[in-house]
Structure formats: C-alpha cells, structure tokens
Amino acid sequence: MEDARETTDGRSVFHAKLANVERQRLKLLVDVLEAYDPKSEEDFADVIDLVLNNRFTPTELALEFKVSVGTVSRWRSGKSCPPTYARGVIVNRLREMQLQYFAQRKTAPMSTLKTEVA
To answer: Which top-level group of life is the source organism from (predicted)?
Structure first.
C-alpha cells in the first residue's frame, strides 16, 4: 500500500490542511475581537464565551486578569460585567494573546498541533 500523500516539508497533506484550518480559525477569532465595542455588556459575555470555547480555560483567564474563576464564569453568563474601560482593556489583551498564540502556531512543529487536536 502506498504511503499517505506528503507535502514538500514532509507533513501529510491531511495535517497540512488541518494546520491551515487552525490558523484560519485563530485569525477569525482575532477579527471578531477587533470588532468588539466595549460599550456593549452583552457582547462582552459573548466574547468571554467565544474565547473560552475556542482557546482559553476559565483558570487561564482568571490568572491573566487577576480575578477569580467565579468572576470569569459570571462574565461569561452575563451576570456581571466589568466597567466599560476595563472591558476594552480585557478584550484588547485577549486579542494580543490570540495574536501571540497565532504567531506561535505559524512556526510550531506539526507534532504540537497533533497533540492538541487529538
């Protein structure tokens, strides 16, 4: 039986396409964060839900913003919300974190992606 198709850098075509999907997903998330309006409390809850569903854990956000995991949970559910200026700072930081992660993913070895997807 013939080996799986490979790209010029030795990765399988499947894994090359998988990495491309991951990069596109990360870029779309950054685009959404850039469109956020800090005046919207409802959108803030959606932003927190989005980043928790796609990249970060509640614990990571709590540590990053020096709040409790319960606070992150209340932000996500819309039960509480930081002031407008803080929402802008938080979403800008989330966007920066996502861009940093995106930059790392562009150069990360395929084995890293395989373990995250598995």
So the answer is: Bacteria
